[in-house]
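Example record for the data management plan.
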Amino acid sequence: MVAWFARLSDQLVLLEELSLHDVVITVRWVEDCVRSHIAAPESPGGMGATFPTHRGRELAALVRSDHHWFGASLAELTGLREVVERDDHGGHRQALGQYGRLLSAALARHRRDEAELERLRDARSSRPLRNPN
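Corresponding structural encoding:
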């Protein structure tokens, strides 16, 4: 989804021929995907887990912070989409595309951070058991 949204955003900035319907449907889909992700009680990456390493704690805090800020980002994205829906012209499409580029980059980094947290969680849970004897 993130890579696809990044490509759409590039197309908007470059004023490539896209139907208004396709732009609106795609941006709404992205909004729904991100909303679903941040509303999930536990996202991938083990955010609820505690991590013994500084890197794990740092990533968990960053991922939680991202979830908070993505709410504000979605409000901005929705507002720009609505502007394009009301007044579809090149400047508005480019503004939506530029914001889409920023959000896509943030989402891509976020997904990398979550994947790293998942690896840290898996590595932690796969440690050999101690022999109490």
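Summary line stored alongside the record: Residues 2-120 form one domain.
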